[in-house]
Design brief:
The complex is a heterodimer of chains A (about 500) and B (about 250). In chain A, helix 4 runs antiparallel to helix 10, helix 11 crosses helix 12 and helix 12 packs antiparallel against helix 13. Chain A is of the alpha/beta class. Chain A is about 25% helix and about 35% strand. Chain B is globular, with a radius of gyration of 18 Å. Helices cover about 35% and strands about 30% of the residues of chain B. Classes of the chains: A alpha/beta (about 500), B alpha/beta (about 250). The structure holds adenosine-5'-triphosphate and magnesium ion. Chain A: Belongs to the iron-sulfur cluster assembly SufBD family.
């Protein structure tokens, strides 16, 4: 089962020369600040100080009431709560037994209305975002529209006019539910059912914020849509809910990046992302998460792809204490294609349990999973993947490549590839490698003048290059700087 | 005018059978502009000498010294040695997946010089050096040594030699695996670096053929971890004719 599947090159928008990134860095020393997330800061916590801890029926009713939601959504939330309370905490995957659900704030309102421009934002919030470099990114028109999520609600939202003219809807989920209820009635919870898993159920019960995107038939959104998320309240869970619908023959690239300041106690991030790619539509969803190292990041992401459509998950996991995330693609129509590129960094005290799930439900469907992980300083990186090919999904093909790089001898990597094949006429390929940074590689680079840290960073960057090249420039730069920062901690 | 002095160097490695002494008192002095050829049988310790000069952590210096203009080289990490103007063209250059030659060369040049080269002149310099060494332009976007043939790897080592402009270079069997044309092209590269930068060179080889292109000032016969005899260029011819028997017998 080693047959290789050729990548559909035209679906990849890559940086031609990865060296270009270094070139840009070299020529613009100031740009480095864009990539360096500051881990250690946090703003004053006015909004979160008074929020209630724990979740029950009253909390759910309160959230729904404050949002002035339709009755059916409240019902859905209550159902979610029931499933959440009933389902046991998963015992497979990473250890999440330390989460104290009663000590988490499930809803924090940080500003009343929504701001229309940066100037409308409260000053401390603006400070936070300026440190994340968002206004610059805006000015540079790197983003097509920015939905900046602060605590539980989207406080800032803007969309470029030409997108609106094309009929593209890009807004926070709360507002979208009010303004475009028809999409929610049809699709909310249709890709990820309420009781899918404990954390998706919790999200359904207490969700707040997130992005809604609708791309009409035939519309290609040329520039990525971006949203930035941050948790800024101690012990506050963030439960954003994202719904993306790409109508027939459309294209959209959505980017989500997260950072969080460091707190003493554990935080929970449990998002749900539902995506519908209709006939011949293509959706790319890029995530770089850099949660602080006390966050439990338990996210359910799933896409349903119809005939001829393509879903691409690009998933970078750098931060968090524990991440469990397996972006899934359900290939429901012929010639549908799913692709996951995932990269995980596990440092001291971190467990990145990530992978992907591909479900082939129609003939002539194809999927590929490329997973790269780097473990250092005692961290643990696990690949967990499921490839399922249903009966009748003949002539379908999947390939899985998972490569792990160990930077030292105290770190750990493991793989859990599950396959469930109910059809004979399929092509499967699976390759897994574990490599160690070799003494000779380090010596070669050091004998060319690079310090041990630089040499290590270069090796690691090279290792994840196949994924970094798929990222938009500013994210690739960020990733580069983050790798450098991480290596500083692990060499010596 | 610089001097690289290796004095009574003893080097051991840790093996599964315990500590093994490989260099047993090596003394060589190289001055700027000089070419020293080192010839010796397989396993005599030539690469060990080369790696030790460059600071490979696997090799432990038990006694003796290496100094560069009086400065203690053994105190320096490999990167500091490179920054001090030392270069090793390796017998087995290492692959670095995912890192393009362009990126690697620029990063290394910046690290060695302590400042980034001016982009426009640098790009031109790289392109011209590649042309002279008959390295195809598409190597710039290939990953460091990945999938390079043996001879291509050696050319790329000499490309680095030309671009980094070291004061002293150790060339470990750079001629092995080169075809006849490549041998000439690579030798010319070494000679250019030699004359332009007044580089001192320690050239490890098994064959006198390369010495037709790169004229050594001294030839050292290396046997069993030490220099058995030192002489002029004619010593190489004697080796070519009679082999190492005379020296091995003395061990
Ligand atoms: N890691 C190691 N473990 C055991 N023995 C080693 C190791 N490294 C080197 N040696 C031994 O040290 C001796 C010297 O090796 P070295 O590579 O320096 O020889 P050389 O003169 O360069 O040989 P050649 O002409 O074949 O390149 C050899 O006997 C070799 O087997
Ligand atoms: Mg050798």
């Amino acid at each position: 089962m080693t047959e290789q599947i050729s990548k559909t090159q035209e679906t990849l928008q890559s940086t031609e020369d990865p060296g270009v990134i270094q070139e840009v860095l070299d020529n613009n020393p100031e740009i480095k600040s864009l990539g360096n997330y500051e881990y250690g800061w946090s703003d004053s916590d006015d909004a979160g100080a008074s929020a209630k801890r724990g979740v029950d029926q009253a909390v759910v009713e309160d959230i729904s009431g404050k949002k002035d939601e339709p009755e059916w959504m409240l019902k859905m939330r209550k159902k979610g709560l029931k499933y959440f309370q009933r389902k046991p905490t998963p015992t497979w995957g990473a250890d999440v037994s330390d989460i104290d659900f009663d000590n988490i704030k499930y809803f924090v309102r940080s500003t009343e209305g929504q701001a229309q421009t940066w100037e409308d934002l409260p000053e401390d919030i603006r400070n936070t975002y300026e440190r994340l470099g968002i206004p610059e990114a805006e000015r540079d028109r790197l983003v097509a529209g920015v939905a900046a999520q602060y605590e539980s609600e989207v406080v800032y939202h803007q969309i470029r006019e030409d997108l609106e003219e094309q009929g593209v809807i890009f807004m926070d989920t709360d507002t979208a539910l009010k303004e475009h209820p028809e999409f929610f009635e049809e699709y909310f919870g249709s890709v990820i059912p309420v009781g899918d898993n404990k954390f998706a159920a919790l999200n359904t019960a207490v969700w707040s914020g997130g992005s809604f995107v609708y791309v009409p038939k035939g519309v290609h959104v040329e520039i990525p849509l971006q949203a930035y998320f941050r948790i800024n309240t101690e012990n506050m869970g963030q439960f954003e809910r994202t719904l993306i619908i790409a109508d027939e023959d459309s294209y959209v690239h959505y980017i989500e990046g997260c950072t969080a300041p460091i707190y003493n106690t554990d935080s929970l991030h449990s998002a749900v992302v539902e995506i519908v790619a209709k006939k011949n539509a293509r959706v790319r969803y890029t995530t770089i998460q850099n949660w602080s190292n006390n966050v439990y990041n338990l996210v359910t992401k799933r896409a349903v792809v119809e005939e001829g459509g393509t879903m691409e998950w690009i998933d970078g996991n750098i931060g968090s204490k524990v991440t469990m995330k397996y972006p899934a693609v359900y290939l429901t129509g012929e010639h549908a294609r799913g692709e996951t590129l995932s990269v995980a960094f596990a440092g001291e005290g971190q467990h990145q349990d990530t992978g992907s799930k591909m479900v082939h439900m129609a003939p002539n469907t194809s999927s590929s999973i490329v997973s790269k992980s780097v473990a250092r300083s005692g961290g643990r990186a696990s690949y967990r993947g499921l490839v399922q090919i249903n009966e009748n999904a003949h002539n379908s093909a999947n390939s899985v490549i998972c490569d792990a790089l160990l930077v030292d001898t105290i770190s750990k990597t493991d793989t859990y590839p599950y396959i469930d094949i109910r059809e004979d006429d399929v092509t499967l390929g699976h390759e897994a490698t574990v490599s160690k940074v070799s003494e000779d590689q380090l010596f070669y680079l050091m004998s060319r003048g690079l310090s041990e840290t630089e040499a290590m960073a270069m090796i690691v960057r090279g290792f994840i290059e196949p994924i970094a090249r798929e990222l938009p420039m500013e994210y690739a730069l960020e990733l580069n700087s983050l790798i450098e920062l991480q290596m500083e901690g692990s060499v010596g | 005018m610089s001097t690289l002095e290796i004095k009574d160097l003893h080097v051991s490695i840790e093996t599964e059978q315990g500590t093994k002494e490989i260099l047993k008192g090596v003394t060589v002095t190289i001055s700027s502009g000089e070419i020293h050829a080192v010839m010796g049988p397989n396993g005599s310790g030539k690469s060990t000498l080369a790696s030790t000069i460059a600071g490979h952590p696997r090799y432990e210096v038990t006694s003796g010294s290496i100094t560069l203009d009086g400065q203690d080289v053994l105190e320096m990490d490999p990167d500091e040695r490179a920054q001090a103007g030392m270069f090793l063209a390796m017998q087995y250059p290492v692959e670095v997946p995912g890192v393009t030659m362009t990126n690697f060369l620029r990063t290394a040049k910046t690290a060695i010089d302590g400042e980034a080269p001016k982009l426009r002149t640098w790009t031109k310099e790289v392109r011209e050096a590649m042309e002279k060494l008959k390295i195809d332009a598409d190597f710039a976007s290939r990953n460091v040594n990945e999938g390079f043939s043996g001879g291509e790897k050696k050319r790329v080592e000499i490309l680095q030699l030309e671009l980094f402009k070291p004061k002293f270079a150790v060339l470990d069997e750079t001629d092995s695996g080169l075809d006849i044309d490549a041998l000439r092209v690579v030798s010319e590269g070494v000679n250019r670096a030699q004359s332009e930068n007044n580089m001192g060179t320690l050239l490890i080889t098994h064959y006198t053929r390369i010495l037709n292109y790169i004229k050594p000032d001294y030839v050292h016969v290396f046997v069993d971890g030490r220099v058995a005899e030192q002489g002029g260029p004619q010593l190489a011819d004697e080796l070519e004719e009679n082999g190492y028997d005379r020296f091995l017998a003395a061990v």
